[in-house]
Amino acid sequence: MARSMVEVEAVPRDELSEFVGLWLASKIDAGVPLEVATRFANDGRLQLALGRPDVYAHVARIDGRPVGYIVTTENPFGLQPEPEIAIELLFVDPASRRHGVARALLAAVATLAEKAGSEVVVSNVPTQSREAHRFFARLGFSSVLVRRVVGTSQLRRRLAPAGHVSHVGHAGQAAVEHLIRRRRSLRSVASRVS
User: How far is 121 from 142, CA to CA, in rounded Å?
Assistant: First the structure.
């Protein structure tokens, strides 16, 4: 049986419905509840993100049917002296995997990087996905850094001094600490005087 040809096209910024359908499928595949993913897709944030001039989305099709997508950003943090293309999202429908879809999408990214003058392509790879790590490693991607994530409230709890949970902002907390130091200083001076 002949292998079907994979076609890749840039997603038009004014026609996102096909992309949004694939994006929803990828979120459900990743275990995000349908109602959460649908709410995000419908509240305009996805369209806003894809409308940025430094964000590019491509869709892959087999026999005209959308089967995967890739989203990239150009100079994601703007801190590198040279142009850089970063793969932010890559998804291939599970039924269409092992048919060259991801490779075709990455070929579009390589073309985009060449046009931008980027010497490197960076990819975010989920830590729990061994298959994705192996795939990118086979293509020559190497591990440069580990991106760690923490919930904001958990970080705030961990940053608070032991036994002290504060809902005061950083500036407020600094003012409180200054006041405590000042009181201790005044008590020390008062105890020496008496």
Answer: 11
Tokens of 5: 């040809």
145 membership: H or E segment, kind and range: none
Among 76, 81, 166, 78, CA closest to 123: 76
Stated pTM of the model: 0.71
Residue 149 — pLDDT band, cuts 50, 70, 90?
confident
**Residue 101 near residue 67, CB atoms below 8 Å:** yes
Among 145, 141, 144, CA closest to 121: 141
Distance separating alpha carbons of residues 133 and 27, to the nearest angstrom: 19
Mean of the pLDDT values across residues 169-181?
A: 69
Can you state the angle between helices 17-29 and 34-42, rounded to 10 degrees? 150
**Which residue shows structure tokens 């079907």?**
4
Q: Which among 12, 11, 36 has a CA at the least distance from the CA of 91?
A: 11
Rounded CA Rg of the chain: 24
| CATH class belonging to 6-149 | alpha beta
- Residue by residue, DSSP assigns 165-186 as ---S-HHHHHHHHHHHHHHHHH
146 three-state secondary structure:
coil
- Across 172-191, average pLDDT: 70
pLDDT, residue 194, reads: 55
Q: Domain extents for the chain?
A: 6-149, 153-193
**Predicted confidence (pLDDT) at residue 192 exceeds the cutoff of 70:** no
